[in-house]
Design a protein that fits this description.
Blueprint lengths: L2 H14 L5 H15 L6 H10 L8 H16 L5 H28 L9 H11 L5 H23 L1 H6 L4 H7 L4 H9 L6 E7 L4 E8 L4 H11 L13 H8 L5 E7 L3 E3 L34 E2 L2 E7 L6 E5 L8 E7 L2 H14 L2
Parallel strand pairs: 1-6
Antiparallel strand pairs: 1-2, 2-8, 3-7, 4-6, 5-6
Helix pairs in contact: 1-2, 1-3, 2-4, 3-4, 4-7, 5-6, 5-7, 5-9, 7-10, 9-10, 11-12
């Protein structure tokens, strides 16, 4: 029997035995992790994921969370995430539902904010006061503190899993201000896949069309644009290093020591003026039309089925650290095609006619 099969058998026996201590459970889980690292193919990983389905619905939330964490390890090492996606979502949904109920109960009791108030501290104080009244909801809130991490591993590995779980995002958004897991779940479930993108630099009449997938933030998106967007002139040096690009793509280390400087102001399509130019970069009254680096691609307004980005001169030097939000999330912009001048003019004319 392969090492992983033996370790999984040991873990399943331990997790199903109520008399087994927490230390012993953690030891059994560690044995699985050690065995996973010896696998030379994905077959035993998938076999283990199938076997874990039998204990995914444990009533003990701590043990169910440990099962999910083991699933996350198996997926991270190459197991098929879709084997457990339905079970994961089925477990995650009631945790989020009950957490939303607790969130609403706490926030409805919070006083009007004062200048020196700490809303997180106020929330935690009220939550503690509700321990006797909402024990199930508080248990769900606490379980979600660890359950979200294996969920991120599985959603990072599979765009199909993310798509299937999209309906959970509004609940995660609701609690995101007070729950770390809610924040990260709403971030991963906001990630777009195979999303049409149109990028035009009106002043230079340069543009591309393509599809983006797996990009979790707009700083990361800017790295891709600086890497692939065409340049004019004779001297076409790189805008960004290959090391920074690899970080953005989700390969290797999730960060590097590089500091990235943005090449443009990014504008939504509504920023285009009647003369087919963008606002003066020093016009901060137009900042509501900027596409902020702190945002996500899902925030970018759609025009004719495309997320449209218009590139203008930078208002000031914007820099950020080379990193990505999710360690194992692969990202790309593909099917890229450079637009002709005629196509660019046609797009700009249509955008101009539709601009409010």
């Amino acid at each position: 029997m392969p090492n992983l099969d033996r370790a999984m058998q040991f873990f399943l026996h331990a997790i199903a035995n109520p008399s087994v201590t927490e230390d012993d459970l953690n030891e059994a889980a560690s044995s699985v992790l050690a065995a996973v690292q010896t696998c030379s193919s994905t077959e035993p990983l998938d076999r283990s994921l199938h076997s874990l389905l039998s204990v995914f619905d444990l009533e003990d939330r701590d043990r169910a969370t440990l099962v999910a964490m083991v699933c996350g390890i198996l997926v991270k090492w190459g197991g098929n995430s879709m084997i457990v996606t339905a079970a994961l979502i089925e477990r995650l949904q009631p945790l989020l539902e009950e957490s939303v109920q607790l969130h609403d109960a706490c926030t409805s009791r919070m006083p009007e904010p004062q200048e020196d108030d700490d809303p997180i501290e106020q929330f935690e104080t009220i939550k503690a006061q509700l321990t006797g009244q909402m024990p199930n909801e508080i248990a769900a809130w606490d379980s979600l503190q660890t359950f979200w991490q294996p969920a991120i591993a599985i959603f990072s590995a599979s765009s199909e899993a993310r798509h299937t779980a999209q309906f959970l995002r509004p609940m995660a958004q609701t609690i995101a201000g007070y729950h770390e897991g809610g924040h990260w779940l709403q971030c991963i479930l906001a990630v777009l896949d195979n999303e049409p993108i149109l990028v035009i630099e009106p002043e230079k009449r340069l543009g591309i069309i393509g599809q983006m997938s797996g990009i979790a933030g707009n700083f990361q998106l800017q790295v891709f644009l600086m890497n692939i967007f065409p340049r004019s002139g004779l001297f076409k040096s790189r805008r960004v290093s290959q090391r920074v690009v690899e970080v953005a793509r989700g390969r290797g280390s999730p960060q590097s020591n590089d500091t990235v400087e943005g090449a443009w102001n990014l504008y939504s399509w509504q920023a285009l003026q009647p003369n087919l130019t963008l606002p003066d970069p020093n016009d901060y009254n137009a900042s509501h039309l900027w596409i902020w680096g702190e945002g996500v691609p899902d925030d970018i307004p759609v025009f004719e089925g495309h997320r449209v980005i218009l590139l203008g001169a930078p208002s000031y030097s914007r820099t950020w650290q080379s990193q990505r939000l999710f360690c194992d999330l692969r990202a790309k912009i593909d099917r890229v095609r450079r637009l002709s001048t005629e196509e660019i003019d046609n797009w700009l004319q249509r955008i101009s006619r539709a601009t409010p």
